[in-house]
Amino acid sequence: MKLFTILLSTIALGLIIFNFTKVDFNAPFEDDSMIALITIVASCCVIIMMAILRTSKRIEQKVKQSK
Known about the structure:
Helices cover 82% and strands 0% of the residues. It is mostly helical. Helix 1 (2-20) packs antiparallel against helix 2 (31-66). The chain contains two helices and no strands.
């Protein structure tokens, strides 16, 4: 599971970097720039969700160890 979350986070980071290059800063809310911004936000959400998942798994392991 740890490898899976790291892999997804890495892919999401790659998508953020790739789409950041596609944003036209002169008109960020038009055409392809808007799609790139949406993808950047979605990738950030994936990274946050994977961090939450990793944290919850760590908590679950500690609870199991304390019993």
